[in-house]
Amino acid sequence: MGLSFKFDLTKVYDIRTQYVQTKIPLAGYFFNWMGYVVNVAFFALFINKKKWIFAALIAVLQLLLFSATGNKTFLFALPFALALMWLASRKNPLFYIAVGMTATVILGMLSYWIVDDIWISSLFTRRTLLVPAHLAFYYFDFFSSNGPIFLSHSIFRFFLNYPYSLNPPHLIAMVYFNKPETAANNGIVGDAFMNFGFIGLVFWSILLVIILKLVDSCSKGKDIKIGIAVVALSVIALTNSALLTCLLTHG
Questions:
Q1: What is the percentage of the chain residues whose pLDDT exceeds 70?
Q2: Could you give the CA distance from residue 191 to residue 106 in angstroms, rounded to a whole number?
Q3: Dist CA 135 CA 239 (whole Å)
Q4: Rounded CA gap, 69 and 27, in Å?
Q5: Model-level pTM?
Q6: Using CA atoms, how far apart are residues 141 and 70, in angstroms rounded to an integer?
Q7: How does pLDDT run across 99-112, given as a tens digit for each residue?
Q8: 70 and 16 in contact (C-beta within 8 Å)?
Q9: Do residues 241 and 185 lie in contact, with contact meaning Cβ atoms separated by under 8 Å?
Q10: By C-alpha distance, which of 22, 25, 8, 1 is closest to 63?
Q11: N- or C-end of the chain: fewer Cβ atoms within 10 A?
């Protein structure tokens, strides 16, 4: 089965399944590096330098990445980066963030009440705010009863025995949704607790602080708008992906 390009937002999970079935070597690294970091960095740079044609070409490439993988983050990455660049130039960015999030929630509610459509609420409110917290609870519930796995599914798999037949996201999906084919990915909180219990929350927090300090030191003297745009997607990925996964495949 070859890679195909589709743009229907209602069929993103079908697109994602087809993409996974293609089993393109190193695609998880290449596409994620492109979609989360490289394209965003060049887009921010071209926008900042007002090179509109090059920015448009990057936008087309990003759209193709979304259509091939079904990853909704790729679709909204560039508009999100553009919004962050605008926020970085404001005097009170937190105010605009609060207004924007509130408006999004209200828009989703109005869409449901007026036209009986949950698409906006599902795409933004549910997927961004509710699902990560819901899955984090499932990770806590399962691994508090069965014990941590100490990265035996990952970098320590050569030294430790992983006790399950399914990897953690598919394991959680099987136990709580009876859908082992689904990947119930969670972010840094579920990942930390899954691997090391409560102490993992401390370890992962310290490691994240060190990483952010390194990023901060590397961005000194650079345009803050570009720096924020480049880093933001990788930080947001921490709500949906394990810390080590983010470091390896999300930039």
A1: 88
A2: 31
A3: 10
A4: 10
A5: 0.80
A6: 29
A7: 988 998 899 889 88
A8: yes
A9: yes
A10: 8
A11: N
